[in-house]
Structure of F-box domain-containing protein:
Amino acid sequence: MASPKRGRDGSGGGGAGTTSASPTMPDDLMIEILSRVPVKALMRFRCVSKYWNSFVFDPNLVKLHLQRSPRDNPILYTLSEYGEYEDDAHYLHQSSTQCLLQNPNSVVGNDGDGILVFVDYDIVGVCNGLVCLSRIHANLDEIWVRFWNPATRLSSDESPSCYIECGCANMAFGHDASTDTYKVVAAVMSDAECHKLELIVHDLGDDCWREIPTTDADFPSEFLQTKGVFLNGTLNWVTVLGTGNSKSLVDFCFDLASETYTCFKLPNNAEEGFSELGAFGGCLCLSHIYHRESFAFWQMKEFGVHQSWTLLMNISYHYFEFPRYLIPRPLCLSEDGNILILVCHAEYQLVCCNRRHSQIEHFEIPHKWISLKSTDYVQSLVLPYRTT
């Protein structure tokens, strides 16, 4: 078994002892036992010996540990507050779905477990415990990405830069299970005058970006969603297909395995207003705001099937305690679809919408510098770089 490379941030392998003898217990049994141990404890085991330093990142252990990781920690958020943290410092926290549903204010508790996020980077997406970060040049003409595992504190080097126009890059991050490859896909503007978009992809560990062939007839003229959504091996954005009177809003769906794309129709009455896709309960969901009058939340029960779009909630702005020009974002959905928690960052509010009891409650977020983002985060041993 090859020993993994040292982490790009200098932390990989640090502190390992000189003992190289392996334990007498069979590797299969060791993997079975260690797959149930939290990541934080496994990181301490690396300091025992060179053997342990290598064994913790054994591919079989990494895979089994990921399969057994608890899935009830989907809320990631960055937190900073003047007087508490240094300027420009942002800390990554996590919260349990169940805790949030029971007590919406629990998401902003100071648990002391915050992880410092790289300065000047934006979170593109999260998948299997890996966080994809992006950085745009000050001139808005270049973009880089890097990969980071907050649980292990390991990170990759920056990718090669990608040329963009006007800082325009609609990105998403996901996992191709067929090849066990993590990919970043971006729709970038290649020609601002002609409003020409192109699709490019970067694989974790590669030294280049690749262009995906597209045709004007079936490729969107505009991406309305900055960050795409990963679900079922695909990346999804709300986009505009067609021009002039033939324009329509569609879900642009990119398959990571085949590297091909298709477009799905959104609900019939979601053509006008603001629309944004998300993933909740293993289903693709759509938030739609109609002329700042109502907030509708749809769920696609069967992925890719237009007829399966189901309206879960439709709430008049009259019931919200914030102005109509503000847009609430969904943060958490209960398994039965009866409770939806929204966040309105501008007003520092969480909104708990209970469909069963026809009840809406507002909760104030005590921290004034907080960015809440819902994602299926799990602590894992997945490496943010290639070892071979």
